[in-house]
Design a protein that fits this description.
Radius of gyration: 18 Å
Distance between the termini: 61 Å
Number of domains: 1
Shape: rod-shaped
Number of helices: 5
């Protein structure tokens, strides 16, 4: 594996943990079947830290607060 790639993986703690739990992805990285960008996108989707997930989570929190306020009335 390229030393720059190893450095970039260790620099990103979320990506490092993701690879730790999904060690089968190391083979794909070694064979150049998957790029760092693809790996980061896959990690964000699996960990639900994409922008769409954040917006959805915020919407759910607002809806919960609205429901709570309606109950108090």
């Amino acid at each position: 594996m390229n030393q720059n790639l190893i450095y970039k993986i260790r620099e990103n703690p979320d990506l490092y943990q993701y690879l730790k739990y999904n060690s089968y992805l190391y083979k794909a990285i070694m064979r150049n079947e998957i790029t760092l960008k693809d790996l980061e996108n896959r990690m964000r989707q699996d960990l639900k830290i994409t922008m769409a997930d954040k917006i959805n989570n915020l919407g759910q929190k607002i809806e919960l607060a609205n429901t709570f306020l309606n109950i108090l009335r």
